[in-house]
């Protein structure tokens, strides 16, 4: 039975989409006032502190020592590198345009999964990836006056490292819950971002109030709260509902960017974004009644394989990254799909 539109789970899913979409214009405001390094560090640090404060109440376990290298990789790619690259790209790329470029993260996740994890590619996945990347090329070209701009390429680089994060989280999600993986990765990212702390301190001292509020908002809401309500929603809603809702992140980001920043996307950017989303939809399609390969569940809020003494919980959440979320995004199920797009 489908949940009522007014149910708490549906409201949580709606809130996730809005929070992750709003992160793109919030990044633009924060970068203008704080700079790339300071905004990156502050957002990661705030989100890490918030998740670590929640950890004891959520019964987050201490990770195994053998998993620390993989956790460090997740923190380096999906958290530290992703935030730096996305924030750097948004210095020149409009917030709405960045959301359209980040929308192709699933294509990179699937392609990297096939190379690293030897996941099987079918015709639909290959074609969908090609379509999504072609759409990104249209968006990136439309953003400049003579082909791809350097900033557009930087945003695409953020999508690539987010794809690496998706692949790196898969082994962890077989042993830990999504909240645990998100907490580990965010904490690791905060440690790796510590060299940015001095620059963040000096920038924060002279930053306008709006930029500081933006950093606080990004850390607490799209990054920390966005993950929590995403995990709540995907544990209670059908997979198809969760997946379909995440395709709305980029369009909602365009709308929020228009209201907040007055950004008006070019027709070519909208067309390219539509092509990218169509490609992502093709990647996530599978034959009726055919379950995703690998562990139970599928991308976008699948249920991970629990530890022997823990009940099954949602495998992953934001985000933020996320879309421009914390970079906390569920790994794609084996042979299919990808995680949410979060900032």
Question: Can you describe this structure?
Answer:
65% of the residues lie in helices and 0% in strands. It is an all-alpha fold and 343 residues long. The protein is globular. The model is unreliable at 287-324 and 326-341 (pLDDT under 50).
List keywords for this structure.
13 helices; 65% helix; 343 residues; disordered C terminus; mainly alpha; 0% strand
What is the element layout, followed by pairings?
Layout: H1 8-34, H2 36-54, H3 68-89, H4 95-102, H5 105-116, H6 123-142, H7 150-173, H8 178-192, H9 197-206, H10 209-234, H11 239-246, H12 249-261, H13 267-284
Give the overall silhouette.
globular
Main beta sheet strand tally, sense and closure: none
Fraction of residues in helix:
55-70%
| Count of helical stretches | 13
Total number of β-strand segments?
0
DSSP strand content: under 5%
Helix/strand/pairing class, anyone? mainly alpha
- Rg, rounded, reads 18 Å
Oligomeric state of shown chains: single chain
Order of helices and strands: HHHHHHHHHHHHH
Residue-averaged pLDDT: 77
Which runs of at least 5 residues are low in confidence (pLDDT < 50)? 287-324, 326-341
Distance between the termini: 31 Å
In brief:
The protein is mainly α and 343 residues long. The protein is 65% helix and 0% strand. It has helices at residues 8-34, 36-54, 68-89, 95-102, 105-116, 123-142, 150-173, 178-192, 197-206, 209-234, 239-246, 249-261, 267-284.
């Amino acid at each position: 039975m489908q949940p009522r539109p007014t149910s708490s789970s549906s409201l949580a899913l709606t809130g996730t989409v809005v929070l992750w979409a709003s992160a793109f214009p919030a990044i633009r405001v924060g970068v203008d006032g704080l700079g790339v390094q300071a905004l990156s560090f502050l957002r990661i640090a705030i989100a890490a502190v918030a998740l670590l404060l929640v950890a004891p109440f959520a019964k987050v376990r201490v990770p195994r020592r053998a998993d620390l290298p993989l956790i460090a990789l997740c923190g380096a790619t999906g958290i530290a590198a992703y935030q730096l690259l996305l924030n750097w790209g948004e210095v020149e790329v409009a917030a709405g345009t960045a959301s359209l470029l980040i929308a192709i993260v699933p294509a990179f996740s699937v392609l990297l999964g096939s190379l690293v994890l030897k996941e099987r590619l079918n015709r639909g996945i290959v074609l969908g990836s090609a379509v999504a990347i072609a759409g990104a090329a249209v968006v990136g070209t439309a953003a400049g006056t003579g082909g791809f701009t350097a900033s557009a390429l930087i945003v695409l680089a953020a999508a690539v490292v987010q794809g690496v994060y998706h692949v790196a989280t898969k082994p962890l999600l077989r042993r830990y819950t999504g909240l645990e993986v998100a907490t580990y990765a965010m904490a690791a990212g905060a440690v790796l971002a510590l060299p940015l702390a001095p620059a963040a301190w000096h920038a924060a001292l002279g930053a306008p109030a709006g930029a500081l509020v933006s950093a606080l908002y990004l850390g607490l809401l799209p990054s920390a709260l966005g993950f929590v309500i995403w995990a709540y929603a995907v544990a209670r809603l059908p997979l198809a509902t969760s997946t379909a809702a995440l395709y709305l992140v980029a369009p909602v980001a365009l709308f929020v960017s228009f209201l907040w920043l007055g950004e008006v996307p070019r027709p070519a950017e909208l067309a390219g974004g539509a092509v990218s989303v169509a490609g992502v939809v093709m990647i996530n399609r599978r034959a009726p009644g055919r379950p995703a390969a690998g562990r139970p569940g599928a991308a976008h809020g699948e249920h991970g394989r629990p530890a022997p003494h823990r009940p099954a919980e949602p495998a992953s959440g934001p985000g933020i990254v996320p879309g421009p979320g914390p970079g906390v995004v569920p790994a794609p199920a084996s042979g299919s799909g990808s995680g949410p797009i979060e900032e």
